[in-house]
Amino acid sequence: MKKPYLFDFPRVGNHNIGYISIAEVSTGLPFQVKRVFWTYHTPESIVRGRHAHHQTAQILVAVSGRIVVLTEMPNGELQTFVLDRPDIGVYLPPYCWHTMQYSQNAVQMALASTEYTADDYIRDYAKFKKS
């Protein structure tokens, strides 16, 4: 089973003119992107996520601000990732329980391997632990 890891996006430019980062399958994305969504204006006191997916893999990116991502695999392996640069993401495989907490004005972009379907979500932690 794959586990979460940091993903480096290519970065083009310099500090004089700015940068652009690219997400393409040819640059090493671990899946074909089927859905892109973003989260913003989340109060710092709110913990989001609290779920896993049966099929969907994702890469989460802090386009702006800082996001702390906590992950847990079914075997109990825990990891913490701090996303605070827009050229770094965290890969989340299927069956990876995850939570996110955001700094003020953080913007999170998610690249997903599947289109949305409610049946793909594992929202009950006890059921996740049995997977």
Keywords, please?
131 residues; mainly beta; Jelly Rolls; 5-stranded antiparallel sheet; 12 strands; RmlC_Cupin_sf; QdtA_cupin_dom; RmlC-like_jellyroll
Shape: globular
CATH level-1 class: Mainly Beta
Give the name of the CATH superfamily: Jelly Rolls
Q: Report the β-strand fraction as a percent range.
A: over 45%
Ordered list of secondary-structure elements with their pairings:
Elements: E1 5-8, E2 11-14, E3 18-21, E4 35-40, E5 47-53, E6 58-64, E7 67-72, E8 78-83, E9 88-92, E10 97-102, E11 107-112, E12 121-122, H1 125-130
Antiparallel strand pairs: 1-9, 2-3, 4-11, 5-10, 5-12, 6-9, 6-11, 7-8, 7-10
Report a brief summary of the structure.
The protein is mostly beta strands and 131 residues long.
Describe this structure in words.
With 131 residues, the chain is mainly beta. It has a single domain, classed as Jelly Rolls (Sandwich). Helix content is 5%, strand content 48%. It is built from 1 helix and 12 strands, in the order E-E-E-E-E-E-E-E-E-E-E-E-H. The chain has one helix spanning 125-130, and strands spanning 5-8, 11-14, 18-21, 35-40, 47-53, 58-64, 67-72, 78-83, 88-92, 97-102, 107-112, 121-122. The strands form 3 sheets. It has a 5-stranded antiparallel β-sheet with strand order 1-9-6-11-4, with no helix packed on it. The two termini are 12 Å apart. The mean pLDDT is 95. Residues 6-130 form the Sugar 3,4-ketoisomerase QdtA cupin domain. It comes from Hymenobacter gelipurpurascens.
